[in-house]
Amino acid sequence: MELTGAQILLECLKREGVDVIFGYPGGAVIDIYDELPKHPIQHILVRHEQGAIHAADGYARASGKTGCCLVTSGPGATNTVTGIATAYMDSIPVVIITGQVPTPLIGNDAFQEVDIVGITRSCTKHNYLVKDIKDLALTIRRAFYLAHTGRPGPVLVDLPKDIMQAKIKFVWPDDEAIKMRSYNPNIKPNKRQLQKIIELVKKAQRPVIYAGGGVISSNAAEDLTWLARKLHIPVTATLMGLGCFPADDPLWLGMLGMHGTFTANKAIQDSDLILALGARFDDRVTGKIAEFAPKAKLVHIDIDPTSIQKNVAVHVPMVADMGLALAEMRAIVESDLGAFDFVSAHEPWVKTTIDWDLEHPIKYTPPKKGEAVKPQYVVEKIYELTKGKAIIATEVGQNQMWAAQFYGFQAPRTFLSSGGLGTMGYGFPAAIGAQMAFPDQLVIDIAGDGSIQMNIQELATAVCYNLPVKIIILNNGFLGMVRQWQELFYKKNYCSTCMEAQPDFVKLAEAYGAAGFRVTRSRDVEKVLKEAFAIKKTVIVDVRVAQEENVYPMVPAGKSLGEMLLV
Hints:
- This protein is α/β, with parallel strands linked by helices.
- It is built from 22 helices and 20 strands.
- The strands form 4 sheets. It has a 6-stranded parallel beta sheet, with helices on both faces.
- It starts with a strand and ends in a 23-residue tail after the last strand.
């Protein structure tokens, strides 16, 4: 039986397990939308294409599946580029379907024509322009295969309108057909190297595990936790790695880097062995590279060979899937249990890190009577009320860092944030995607008053689909993180960071059909949060917080981790 290109696309998506797709229609993809109601795929109509790609990204991060979005050609496609780059930087598997003008018009400056394949070449794992309907099914299969294998990432498929309308007999490509000679990621860990790593751990007196998002994306958090406890090694994580190790465990050091804890940064600088697992040596983590971990041997395990030795020289490199590597390492340790007393060997070091944490914990100065609410207190209350069981999305800036510091993440895939690109406007649509994946779970977007306004139109999406996402705005009337830098490094020249004209967020929420609350006193925070969490609909809580509160600790840009500002 012959199918049109639009029908073949939807049949492929169904067979790839896509049950929800975030999108926005247009003339170039109208054939797909014409067929969509006939397929068991729920389409979520967003209000902006950037919302579609962030929602697909949030769905992928929360669920572990590949996210999917569908947009039209030209501006529909270019509006997704920020979200594509966001997913690319954080290694999130997303397949983006873009419409394109008919193939005879490509290159003719046709209406709503844009070279989206050329535009996204540097921010996708791979991209395709389908010029022949015979290639369509295989292209879609390969797109999903590429998105979730090796180092995950976004893959874009550009579909001309005439390809969607053409007909051909549908054949589902088998697993052999999707293999590509030029793409063969190494996933198997080297057992000898793993044994060597265990020997290094035995010799080390001050080892630290430095975990990244690769631990979460490879579903290796359980093995990591087991190994850290058995080997008795303190654990720190990147922003992307939060949730890979329980924050209430005595071995947890907190996040490291520019706004990391004193304990984590001090431990890295004093360590004699660092096990970097599924983490890049990003500049926000290393600070001044020449002075990063000066006393340590570095072990780096990552699925992406280009990440190894990229920013820092490592002593033991290994290209492997993190899940397989940690499972194999666990097997080695289990077979050798009793042969070495890791607890006794590392206990003095663990005690030292605990003492550091007691001396310099993450803290803030509580407000005096009559002073504004402290944003850290709001995050602490969110954690206390949810018991760490909510999915937390964030925007970018101070709100993001306070969430990372003061919410104790207990499990993987519960923290959704734009780490690599730092995309303002990410959190709310990502929370919508997460809520679609987990309709019964509490999903919260911790936002700033600046960043929430970048995609606030998605309130209509959340209300339309009865998604009970809670948006907690830490409203300080500033683009807070830029203001902090202006205060500390530019003599308080608050140029263009004061958000003088603010909407009434409560009335705005009500206008969209959501619920709205405003909090101006610390004593009301808990009561309002409880009420907001109990409502089965989209809610905005506008919390007026101290305007000039800063995020500490802070490592100034270009400084070493040992040069933290603590207050």
